[in-house]
Amino acid sequence: MREESLALSGASIRELGAAEAEARLTELADILLDAVAHGASVNFMAGLTREEGRAFWRRQVADIAAGEKRLFVGERDGRLVATVLLIYAPQPNAPHRAEIGKMLVLSSERRQGLGRRLLAAAEKAAAAAGRTLLLLDTESGSAGDKLYRSCGWIEYGRVPDHAYRTDGRLAETTMFYKRLADRPSPEIRVMAAQAGIQETAES
Ligand SMILES: CC(C)(COP(=O)(O)OP(=O)(O)OC[C@H]1O[C@@H](n2cnc3c(N)ncnc32)[C@H](O)[C@@H]1OP(=O)(O)O)[C@@H](O)C(=O)NCCC(=O)NCCS
Questions:
Q1: What domains are defined for the chain?
Q2: 110 CA distance to ligand 1 centroid (A)?
Q3: Which residue of 10, 25, 94, 173 pairs with 89 in a disulfide if CB–CB is 3.0 to 4.6 A?
Q4: Contact criterion met (CB below 8 Å) for 126 and 180
Q5: How far is CA 102 from CA 152, 165, 166, in A?
Q6: In a mutational test of the pocket of ligand 1, which residue from 36, 86, 105, 111 has the highest number of ligand atoms less than 8 Å from its CB?
Q7: Residue 176 bridge partners (DSSP)
C-alpha cells in the first residue's frame, strides 16, 4: 500500500496494490454497483449483482498483480469511495500509451472535487511511468464527459449508438485523449529502442 497524497477535504487519494484490492473486493464492487444504480454507462447493465461486481474487480486484481494496470482510490474514514484504473497499453508499439478506466465516485461523494483529484493522481503516475499519451471514452454529455473536458482532455471522435445505457437506450460515446508531454520520455524511448522500435526524426 503506497500513500500518494493526503486530502484537503477529508478524503485521501492513494494507490491500492493487488493484495489490498483483493481484500477489499466488496467495497470496490459496491462503488461499481452504486454507479450502475445511478445510471452510469460503465460497461454494465442495471441489475449488476455484488458477486458480478466482485468478479469484475477480481479480474482487475490479477492484471494489477501482473503490472498491467494500476488502481487509485479515494478513501474517506477508512471506506473506499472512488476508483480509477490506469491501464498500460500492452502493444509493443505503444510503450508510451495508457488508458483510463472505471473512473467512479460514489454518488454521495460527487461534486466535491474527488474525481478531478483522482484523475490528476492517475495522470501523475502515468507521466512518472513514461505513459505520456492517455486515452479514454465515455458517454457523450455525461458527468464524465464534463469532468474530462474540465481537466484538459481533448475530444477526438464520437461513435453513435456505441453502447446501451442502463435504461436500455443506445447512447453515443465520445473519445478523448490527453498528452502529458510533447514526446515520449527518454526512458520510454530507450525501452522502445531496446524493443526494436526505430524512431524517425519526424515521429
Ligand atoms: C464522472 C464522475 C467520476 C465525476 O466525479 P466528481 O467527483 O463528481 O467530479 P468533480 O467533483 O471532481 O468534478 C470536477 C469537474 O468536472 C465537471 N463535472 C463533474 N460532474 C459534473 C456534472 N454532473 N455536471 C456537470 N459538470 C460536472 C465540473 O466541471 C466539475 O467542476 P466543478 O464542480 O468545479 O464545476 C462521477 O460523476 C461519477 O462517478 N459518475 C458515474 C461514473 C461515470 O460515469 N464515470 C465516467 C465513466 S468513463
A1: 2-194 (3.40.630.30)
A2: 7
A3: 94
A4: yes
A5: 19, 15, 16
A6: 111
A7: 136, 155
